[in-house]
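#lab-general

N.A. 3:47 PM
ok so I finally got the sequence cleaned up, no stray characters, all 78 residues accounted for. can someone with queue access submit it? mine expired

B.Y. 3:52 PM
send it over

N.A. 3:53 PM
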Amino acid sequence: MKEQKIKQDDIKIGENIRNVRTQKGYGQTELVRMLQLQGITITRETLVKIERGIQHISASQLRGIKNALETSYDELLK
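B.Y. 4:20 PM
back already:
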C-alpha cells in the first residue's frame, strides 16, 4: 500500500517546518540525519523541496519531523 502524501496547498507545512527547525537551531543536514536514525528515508534535497512547498510530505516524514523537532502536529499544520 502506498503511503499517503499530505498536500501543502492550503497549509504551509514546509514553511512551518523551516521555522521550527531554525528556532531549535538545527540545520537541514542535521534534521535529515535525525530522520534517517528513525528509519525514515529522506534526503536533504527532499527536505529542501518540502520546506519550499514544492513537494508533498508523507505521513511518516511528518511524524518523524514532529518527533525529531520535539514539536506538535498543531505547530506544523497551522
